[in-house]
Specification:
The chain is an alpha/beta fold. The chain is built from 14 helices and 14 strands.
Amino acid sequence: MNTFHNGLRRIQTDSKTAQQYVLLCLALAVAALIMVSGGSGEDVISVVFRPFVNFIRVIAWLAECLGVIYLFGYIPHSWSYYDDFSRAGICNQAHEAPLLVKANRDGNIQQLTFSLKGCPLEYWEDNRTTIESALNVTVLSITQGSNNQLFDLRVVAGCNLMGRLIPWADTYMDDSDTKIVLGINAAGIPVSIDFSQLPHWLLAAATGMGKTQLALLILYQLSQKGYDIYLADYKGVDFGPEYRKTGHYADDDAALEQMLDSVVHELNHRRTEFSIAGCANLEEYVQTTGEELHRIVVILDETSMILDTTGRDKDGKAVVASITNKLLAIGRLGRALGIHLLVATQRPDVGSVPGSLKAQLDGRICGHTADAQSSIVILDDGSAAKLPAIPGRFIIRNGSGSDEIIQAYYYHQ
């Protein structure tokens, strides 16, 4: 029935399909008329039964027209998908498996739309790895379809191009000033984040999962694009001397407060200048005044060493509160002013990333976490705990409603 309904939808919405259907029905009607007129016998039996025979032929013609609708609605391999889902246990409580209702291809990426009653989007996300195994594909994204029973899957069949080390090359860099390339998805397509769309990002992963390498890659591209970089690095070992500029680098609380004060001062200065010029954002201000104004990014590496108040005395907690307030001010007002935050941590817990700050960090980049609770702190669900423990493998959550899994480029400074 779903295949038949799909054929009806195609005929109703696609004029070319509708024309083909009408021509086929006419051809079948002509063939039926030829058969009717072909009889030469005029005996009594033929005359008596001819109306009955003609009626049977009309019924047969209608059945053929309905069969053509079914053929127009049939999607190749739809039954194979249904069987594969059934074997893997991807079913609703009535034991109905997802039914393929639409399929398109763009290069090596397939866009598959499935219909399933009684299973929300969360069910599909929770069973992503089972779906990949059942269909022998890599799922790039799962999104809600046009209604609550339709689900769109972007998949790549066959080999997974993420299963290898991919060294960085400057030719991979995006021409846009605000787009930072991170890696590739399973289809081999470069994936980037856009600071003009989501200005503040949270980067987290367990030890050894490539967080620092990805931070270095992001930092390198930002410097190449002319961003003013302010870096807090309490460990003091991961970033080269080119990023340890006076006033732009902090390795303790006092230096960080001073550094953030200068950023907040610039933030307030820009607010005043933008207001005077009657401009709402950085792009509009530059276009209106012709003044060259660089974007600013504040990067905090290993925030558990910076913002966690565990073991600190009263004065230490007051310092953390002051630092947090400055970061919150940047988070609230920085977007339109071209001032951004990138907060990185290897210990994804509430102590490392306070909830008030996390709320300002709309963009999330998360590698494998040791448990579901750590993943929930970053992504609000357990997705990262299910991610393979492969260095450089990350989930990108950019507010589009669909996660993207990537293999990050390997950058060696």
